[in-house]
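Illustration 12: Amidinotransferase.
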Amino acid sequence: MNKRNPQAPSAVIMIRPHHFYANPQTQGDNAFQALAGDNAESVAHMTATPLDSLAFQQVSTAAKQLEEQGIRVHIFEDESYATPDSVFPNNWFSTHSGGHIAIYPMYADNRRLERRSDIINMLKQAYRVQDVIDYSGLEQDQLYLEGTGAMVLDHIERVAYAVQSNRANPLALERFCSHFNYEPMLFDAKDENGVAVYHTNVLMCIGTDFVMLGGDMVTSDTRRNEIIARFEGSGREVIYLTEQQITEFCGNALELQSDTQRLLALSLRAYNALNSQQRGILEKSVTLLPLDVSAIETAGGSIRCMLAGVHLASRPV
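Figure caption equivalent — predicted structure in token form:
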């Protein structure tokens, strides 16, 4: 199997938190965090392990399971109390074929502290990096675009799908798309209570041969039909997720590729919420890899948020 796949990276960066907790600065517009937070005590109680220790263990175990499947994992430690969401690195940077890195403007003040020069320097040393485009200065103008949380990128068709929210400003999206040669596809999506979806990557997952989509949450029928037509036009099979499945993080998954197979990393909670027909469609093209990240999910994100894909060419060892 060809190791280089524009949609499915073969390497990821993960952050292992030493002092994990749900971020109070993001709870206001993250409905997933509020829902998941109700389960925080029960998650810790079931294991008789403090939540921060459990999060540390689950990140360690997930990284090991990915490596056992042939995925290269670069793991970094975070020993700070000031960065509770650091376990979600895909929001502050992304990497792109051709040797490009983007650094993003973050909505919450304490999330801006997550940006780390040691991670960027590692990427420059281990991979071929041509340039780093830093959009973080847009924070001064209250323009935010939280990476591949705010955008779900179709690397094959060159489309950037983004739900309009506090975390995805149209001007910042246009600037990214013009620099990185993506077509912006901006739309509105809300839950049954009328609350805007805070990050696009909880609503959809784009793989090489499939898309998982919470289409009913897209508020405009016309826009929803346009999005579906784009996916079907690219030859992908669309798997429709219910709003309940979205709240179980079924849309928050990431396709990866080893030397021998394509994998879909998803949380154990999401895996259990998929029905047998949905799993069957996925298993036609990927091996499902359920990972227990129940402690992390109490902060309102899941496994896709935890994996910053590396779409760069490796330097010779």
